[in-house]
Amino acid sequence: MKIKYSIFIILVFSIISCQKFLNENLQGIYTSETFYKTPDQALMAINSAYNDLLFNSSDNCIWVYGDVASDDAVKGSLAGDQLDIHYIDQFNVVSSNSELLSIWLRYYDAITRANIVLSHVSAISMDANLKARILGEAKYIRAHMYFYLVNIFGSIPLKLSPPLTQLDINVPKTSVEGIYKQIESDLIDAKAALPVTYSSQDIGRATKGAALGLLAKTYLYEGKYAQVLTTILSIDSLQLYKLMSVYSANFRAATQSNQESLFEIHHLRSQSPGLGNYLNQYFAPRGVSIYQGYAFDAPTQNFINEFEVTDTIADPRLDYSVGRPGKKWINGETFIPSWSQTTYISKKHVQPFSEVPNATADGYLSYVYLRYADILLFKAEALNELGRTAESLIPLNLVRKRARESYLYDNKFPGFGTVPANLLPDVVSTNQENVRTAIRHERRVELGLEFHRFFDLMRYGQQAAESALSNTNFVYAKDRYFPIPLSEQDNNPNLNN
Asked: Mind listing the pLDDT tens digit for each residue in 114-126?
């Protein structure tokens, strides 16, 4: 996160990396008796908890699960590069796959840091409002990480205290339902404690809107549609969020932290240790020296085909999202097919040379985790599933309206000022199944390459998931969840209970 006075890595957390090697209670240079004494130390502790949300190394490989495991993208890059990602892409996954361990360790590290904050900051003598806010931030971070982990691995250990003893470390698995219950509890607490907005120096921290947005998403994944709508009413009552006029403003450094963003993960360039966004290099064009990119997360033809085309004019979101042959790349040059294995590249996470020279892994573009377009589509889905199909068309068509009206607000379009006839017309059907299909389509093109698609497919169920992934080895009964990493199974005997 970009928090301007942050110190993201401090020695107090050095004990965490040792937890799997010790059989005695953990001790470090600092203890709760010597460190957690002042408001500044409380802030350092919560700032450190944000660190694991960053895309500052390949350890945060959520794109592998959200995109590559779905029908939106393949591994990309060279055939032999990062083979464990390819095995996930094809669902030839064994528990020793390194990508499983990377995400597990990274996200549980964030949970550990949040648990340390929750365990120790309560006792610090400090401003009550600041203390409540810091505890709310910790609960948001813990919920955020558990949301991902439960959707990747299913039943997992629920850790709610610092790893100070073997009992704290070797926790047995909790059911999916139990993990969701804790996520709900944390987010209900967080939304009550977090502020609606922050001053400029604290942009990037979790807000009330972030907690409400993730809570609505949690309810949606659980099929609690009435609670989804109630939570979205609370979001709308804040009167903060609406769609940006131009879709691409959500993926540009100059317009990040905008009115559509409920929660985004900020990055900083030129820091030591590094806090820059490595996706800038991982997803950039391959095979040309000025880019130095790897072209991972390569969009598929199937994804490209999902975008509607009217009289040769494509949904504007296609070229906002994807570099493709014959079109202009982000620096103004013509896109070259050989830059990518699939002849396509994601644009959403790559910055132009005017901002970050030579596609280095030190970008400063935010990753937008949750934006208001997603909230509108949550609302449409919940209304439709509750049988209120006619009402569901209102939020659904707001998303489509913004997309087609790019022609009114982006002067780079030929014919700027006039929306092409019949481009992205409103959905008018009131048949529930037809509208369900329309909402799922809209989620795919609106949120494509933002690391959500695989998780959507899994919650849609067996038929939708197996159909979308029919060109892989995916079988819903065995691949709905990925295996817990082998090293974690070896270290924690309670995982086998």
From this structure: 999 999 999 999 9
Find the Cα–Cα–Cα–Cα dihedral 19, 185, 183, 219, rounded to 10°: 180
Identify which of 256, 268, 148, 136 has the alpha carbon closest to the alpha carbon of residue 205: 136
Q: Grade residue 19 by pLDDT with cuts at 50, 70 and 90.
A: very low
Residue 268, strand partner residues: 275
Q: What is the rounded distance in angstroms from the CA atom of residue 282 to the CA atom of residue 248?
A: 20
* CA–CA distance, 468 with 67 (Å, rounded to integer): 13
CA–CA gap between residue 416 and residue 408 (Å, rounded): 6
d(CA 235, CA 237): 5
What per-residue confidence (pLDDT) applies to 31? Answer: 62
Its pTM surpasses 0.90: yes
* SS3 assignment, position 275: strand
Under 8 Å between Cβ of 439 and 459: no
Residue 7 has pLDDT above 50, yes or no: no
Buried b (16+ CB within 10 A) or exposed e, 456-474: bbbeeeeebbbebbeebeb
- Per the structure block, which two tokens stand in for 163? 């790893």
* DSSP conformation letters of 178-203: HHHHHHHHHHHHHHHHS-S---GGGT
Asked if 303 and 73 touch (Cβ cutoff 8 Å), the reply is yes
Question: Is residue 194 a contact partner of residue 206, using CB atoms and an 8 Å limit?
Answer: yes
CATH of domain 11-80+100-274+369-496: 1.25.40.390
AA letter at 113: R
Rounded to the nearest 5 percent, the helix, strand and coil shares of the chain are 50, 5, 40
